[in-house]
Structures are given as structure tokens and as C-alpha cells.
Design brief:
The protein has 227 residues and is α+β, with helices and mostly antiparallel strands. Helix content is 29%, strand content 25%. The chain is built from 6 helices and 13 strands. It has helices at residues 24-28, 44-62, 75-88, 106-110, 159-174, 199-205; strands spanning 14-15, 22-23, 32-38, 65-71, 99-101, 114-121, 128-132, 134-139, 145-151, 179-180, 191-193, 211-212, 223-225. Helix 2 (44-62) crosses helix 3 (75-88).
């Protein structure tokens, strides 16, 4: 992926939002944050996603993860759109997270959130300008991107997967990168021990023990432990 990607520091942009001026690094602070973009206000898939994110906000808050939306319209548009988002969610969940405004489309370019296939025509004869993709960056306390999802405008995100991925990141971080999570992992299930950890070291680190998968190669690299 060209531009901002995993391991890169997010630009410390200062933008208007529904909660006033926000500087991204200050907002992330010493924790984790999810920055997620939407092609435009008052669009169907975006409205369902924003409502879903509002519904999951408390789960992310429990994990110390802040939410930060961004769309290419202005703050007043965002505030009006929020009424639709909350109504679509049945009024059960308020949009408590800020939504950044990016009418000039400069921030989405710096955040690598542009969808080259989606254009917004400004007038009959005007050239279309790029709209945001459905991009999502999980940013860590060091202000670096830890994980990214990139979807086209036609595909809505799965918030269960976003939450699962965040749980995976937090689990790995808690154990200093000595564990990783296998396919389809969910919290409470076994993680795998990183290849760089010897069996001897693993026994000290994980007194609860670990199980090694019996594979044809007999290399003993696939080790599962409760975390």
C-alpha cells in the first residue's frame, strides 16, 4: 500500500471536528485510537457504519481505545448527519466520538485514505475530486499505525472484526510481542508463542504451560498457550 501504512507515524494534523479543534497526536495520547474514514456524509453504507461504531463505542472504551471519524464534508454537515446516524440506530446509541472535517481532502491524502475509484463531481463540467475510502487505522501510544483495514466504498466494515483485531493487538502488546493470535482467534482462546521464543524461555514466561502441535516437519514451531 503506498503512503501511510503499518509502522508509520500518523501525521500530527490539526482539524476541525464536531468536538472542536483536534490535534491527532494529542487525541491519541498515551493510549490507542481508531481513525476511520467515510466517503461522504448522508450516504447509505456510511450511515450504517457510523451507527454500528456508536453501538460499539463502550466496548472500545473498556479497552482504552478512542474513536475518531473523518469525512470530507464540513462540521455543520457532520452535525446534521449525526441526527440521521442516531435515528438509524433506533436512538439507542449516541455518536459520542468526534468526526473530523476534511472538505479540502488534504487530510485523507496524508492519512492514505483515498479511494481512487470514487469521485465527487463538483459541478457539471468539473473534474471529480477524490473521496475517502473506507480506511481504518489503529494507532498506538507511539502514534504509529499498528493495523489498517482498507475497503472500497461499496463494502461496509464488520465491527466485530475491528474489535477482534484490537483485542489481538492489545494481547500481543501486553506480552511484549512474544505471542501472536492464530486464525479466527477470539479473546479467551489460546495464542501462539512467537518463533523467537525458545522452549526454555516459554516455560518461564508461561508457567501455565503450552502445547506443541505435532506436525510432519517436527520443527515444533506451532506452540499454543493460554494468555
Amino acid at each position: 500500500m503506498p503512503g501511510l501504512t503499518i509502522g508509520d507515524t500518523v501525521p500530527n494534523l490539526e482539524l476541525d471536528s464536531t468536538h472542536g479543534k483536534i490535534r491527532i497526536h494529542d487525541y491519541v495520547g498515551d493510549g490507542y485510537a481508531i481513525i476511520f474514514s467515510h466517503p461522504a456524509d448522508f450516504t447509505p453504507v456510511c450511515t450504517t457504519e457510523m451507527a454500528a461504531m456508536a453501538g460499539y463505542a463502550k466496548e472500545f472504551e473498556k479497552r482504552g481505545v478512542k474513536l475518531l471519524g473523518i469525512s470530507c464534508d464540513d462540521v455543520e454537515s457532520h452535525r446534521e448527519w449525526t441526527k440521521d446516524i442516531e435515528a438509524y440506530g433506533g436512538g439507542k446509541h449516541k455518536v459520542t466520538y468526534p468526526i473530523l472535517a476534511d472538505p479540502g481532502r488534504d487530510a485523507i491524502r496524508q492519512l492514505n485514505m483515498v479511494d481512487p475509484d470514487e469521485k465527487d463531481a463538483k459541478g457539471k463540467d468539473a473534474k471529480g475530486v477524490s473521496l475517502p475510502s473506507r480506511a481504518l487505522h489503529v494507532v498506538g501510544p507511539d502514534k504509529a499505525v499498528k493495523l489498517s483495514f482498507l475497503y472500497p466504498a461499496t463494502t461496509g466494515r464488520n465491527m466485530d472484526e475491528v474489535l477482534r483485531a484490537v483485542d489481538s493487538l492489545l494481547t500481543a502488546a501486553k506480552h511484549g510481542g512474544k505471542v501472536a493470535t492464530p486464525a479466527n482467534w477470539k479473546p479467551g482462546e489460546c495464542a501462539v508463542i512467537a518463533p523467537g521464543v525458545s522452549d526454555e524461555e516459554a516455560r518461564k514466561m508461561f508457567p501455565q504451560g503450552f502445547e506443541t502441535a505435532d506436525l510432519p516437519s517436527k520443527k515444533g514451531y506451532l506452540r499454543f498457550t493460554k494468555v
